[in-house]
């Protein structure tokens, strides 16, 4: 059984990310299926050093501009995203986790070490690095916090169809 209740997926862009590859993924992350997708990249978090460039490129692709702080917490099933600027890795993690949801997250960086550190700290059931919405039948899908209970697909999903049993025997000492 799986109960999936929403996302608010943060898409975290670090200064060393390949913006030519990242910006189209950010646009796709908020517009795919008209934003009516539980893993919509609805929270764009960009490190200060590239924030203006990402904002300009993204606005050019999307041809829109609006941000309201309530959107960080409320589930909007449509092509709406917030744009937040962060300074440090610790700040990015805190902002990414500052929601009651935890279905998925995206990390965009040129550093495997950054990806590994941030992935461990993000409170989400799925974390992608330098991609978005990579889903496979072998991957368990489900969220943390208010993003649901249980897992779809993958080895963890089969546990929903299994019955566990605990058996305890009080056996007297072995006699030869």
Keywords:
Aldehyde Dehydrogenase, Chain A, domain 2; 29% helix; single chain; 176 residues; alpha/beta
* CATH homologous superfamily title: Aldehyde Dehydrogenase, Chain A, domain 2
Query: Uncertain segments of ≥5 residues (pLDDT<50)?
Result: none
Order of strands in the sheet with most strands: 4-3-2-6-7
How many discrete domains?
1
Quick one: biggest sheet? Answer: 5 strands, parallel
The dominant shape is elongated
The radius of gyration is 20 Å
What structural category arises from helix and sheet content?
alpha/beta
Q: How many helices?
A: 5
Distance between the termini: 49 Å
- Beta content: 15-25%
User: What's the total number of strands?
Assistant: 9
Secondary-structure element string: EEHEHEHEEHEEEH
- What CATH calls the topology is Aldehyde Dehydrogenase, Chain A, domain 2
């Amino acid at each position: 059984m799986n109960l999936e209740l929403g996302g608010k997926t943060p898409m975290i862009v670090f200064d060393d990310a390949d913006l030519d590859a990242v910006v189209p993924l950010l646009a796709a992350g908020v517009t795919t299926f008209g934003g009516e997708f539980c893993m919509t990249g609805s929270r764009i978090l960009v490190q200060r050093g590239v924030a203006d460039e990402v904002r300009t490129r993204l606005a050019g692709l999307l041809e829109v501009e609006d941000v309201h702080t309530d959107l960080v917490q409320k589930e909007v099933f449509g092509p709406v995203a917030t744009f937040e600027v962060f300074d440090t890795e610790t700040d990015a993690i805190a902002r990414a986790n500052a929601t009651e949801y935890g279905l998925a997250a995206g990390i965009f960086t040129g550093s495997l070490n950054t990806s590994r550190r941030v992935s461990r700290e993000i409170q989400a059931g799925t974390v992608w690095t330098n991609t978005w919405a990579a889903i496979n039948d072998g991957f368990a899908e489900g969220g943390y916090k208010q993003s649901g209970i249980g897992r779809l697909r993958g080895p963890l999903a089969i546990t929903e169809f299994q019955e566990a049993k605990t058996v305890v025997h009080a056996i007297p000492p072995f006699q030869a």
